Amino acid sequence: MEVKIFPNGIFGATTYVVFDKETKEALLIDCTCCIDEITDFIKKEKLNLKYILITHGHFDHVYCVSEMKKHFPIVPVMMNKEDVDLLNQVPAQCTMAEVDEIKVPCIDALLDEKTKNLKIANTEIKIIRTKGHSKGGVCYLIGDLLFSGDTLFKESIGRCDLYGGDFSEIEQSIKQKLFTLDENITVFPGHGYPTTIAHEKKFNPYFGSNYS
Fold first, then answer.
1. Which residue from 51, 48, 55 is spatially nearest to 32, judged by alpha carbons?
2. Do 162 and 146 meet the contact criterion of CB atoms below 8 Å apart?
3. Where does the pLDDT of residue 209 fall: very low under 50, low under 70, confident under 90, or very high at 90 and above?
């Protein structure tokens, strides 16, 4: 599985295109910026975009979803149902962040850890519910690639002082759900640089070697 990274979206958020070179199947994780660059890449590689997956309902991770949907109208936008309330607050979030206001993006399908048959090129897309940064935040595990949204960053974690945030919940999510994964898994966070589970278990200052 290949990953094309589009960094430096609004508020430094990152968009990922995940794709299989042989089948040309692809998906988009969050949609924060670079509409022209993303669509040009998809067309250049002749990719078949299957899903737009949202990690959580903060404005910086859905800022360009509606615009992207104009280019791919039949591609479903999917997120966890527990963040729908947060998503509905996107206009207010934009106002608080002093950025141009956007409409609430339309969600075509809701998903959770029980969602089945979500695949790309016969590889299962596993949904991991990781409360703490928001109530409905999720990570997506695709083979040995983890897309962690704003739950886990390189040597940091998502902030917990926003609506729906809770440090004890994010701590539990990371310890019990992410740090129990294979240590060789590469982590692609919603902001910043990629890392690995092994690196975070050893060097993340919120946990360090005391993760267990």
1. 55
2. no
3. low
